[in-house]
Design a protein that fits this description.
312 residues, Uracil-DNA Glycosylase, subunit E, 5-stranded mixed beta sheet, 5 strands, 48% helix, 8% strand, 4 iron, 4 sulfur cluster binding, DNA damage, metal ion binding, iron-sulfur
């Protein structure tokens, strides 16, 4: 009898520990293999996609593949289309379907991204992807803009209002400043590839959550592989953290050359550098001096890369 209170206190303490650890349900009578459930769900989604009617664009793509040709997107063509609410171009209203940002959604994104052999196919697969809830409120899928193959690739965080309306990345005030930054070192916007880690505008211009970024990451990673740039520039801390895996703040991270090697062999890594986002520079114009230093470093690295490619 004397140890009854201590047992009760111990039980309460144990339950409190479980609650703090995130355990909110009782144990089931039988073990549950969630790995098998995830694999089964992925297989179910694959079967559903295989059973979907083939669209005319898919039929054309299949015919081109059979003849060994690949479709390409126009560098100057805006990556816009009809509203993307439910992934169907003819729909004028967003879908009410809510996606669960889980491992299944990430696995589905990876599978779709790997299946794309061209940027046009990647854009089409992204348009049909329903695993990210940001798509519900966004007006357009904001895909990359610029040449299919470019020496330089800029990657931002997420579209803003202007980009969401136009369906093209970096067209607002930030984009205009980026254009002037490029011109300052002798580059033209139409000669570089510009994209974001997240292709849909978050509501209210909020920052994408880590889960949303993780779900969208396979698509921008595949875009990097297809464009095959000589240099990657991550604009802002969220982009640098997602693409380069850095945990530092942007002021510590900027100006440091790193290597991008996702799904690439060690011998084919891509030089990458983080820079201050143009939107940050608009809010903090005094920091443009740091941006100018980074632009000069980028210009010098591009010259080195061009010299190596020409054998000089």
């Amino acid at each position: 009898m004397s140890d009854a209170p201590s047992r009760r206190d111990a039980a309460i303490a144990l339950l409190a520990f479980y609650r703090e650890a995130g355990i909110e349900t009782l144990l089931l009578d039988a073990p549950r293999d969630r790995f098998a459930e995830t694999a089964a769900e992925i297989e179910r989604r694959q079967a559903n996609r295989r059973s979907e009617p083939t669209s005319p664009s898919q039929e054309r793509r299949a015919g081109r593949s059979a003849h060994g040709s690949q479709d390409r997107v126009s560098p100057s063509q805006p990556a816009a289309g009809a509203p993307t609410g439910n992934g169907t171009p003819d729909s004028a209203f967003p879908s009410n379907r809510i996606a669960i940002p889980d491992d299944i959604a990430v696995a589905d994104a990876r599978e779709r991204a790997r299946a794309a052999a061209t940027l046009a196919e990647l854009k089409e697969l992204l348009d049909g992807f329903e695993g990210c809830n940001l798509k519900i409120t966004a007006k357009h899928t904001v895909f990359g803009d610029g040449p299919e193959t470019a020496d330089l690739m800029f990657i931002g965080e997420a579209p803003g209002r202007d980009e969401d309306m136009a369906g093209v990345p970096f067209v607002g005030r930030s984009g205009q400043l980026l254009n002037r930054m490029l011109e300052a070192i002798g580059l033209k916007r139409e000669n570089v590839r510009v994209t974001n880690t997240v292709p849909w505008r978050p509501p209210g211009n909020r920052a994408p959550t880590p889960a949303e970024t993780q779900i969208c990451l396979p698509f921008v990673q595949r875009q990097i592989e297809l464009v095959a740039p000589k240099i990657i520039v991550c604009l802002g801390s969220p982009s640098a953290k997602a693409i380069l895996g850095s945990a530092e703040g942007i002021l510590r991270m900027r100006g440091k050359w790193q290597s991008y090697s996702f799904d690439l062999s060690p011998s084919s890594t891509i030089p990458a550098i983080a820079m201050l986002h143009p939107a940050y520079l608009l809010r903090q114009p005094a920091q443009k001096r740091l941006a100018w230093r980074d632009l000069l470093a980028l210009k010098a690295r591009l010259a080195e890369t061009d010299g190596e490619s020409t054998g000089n």
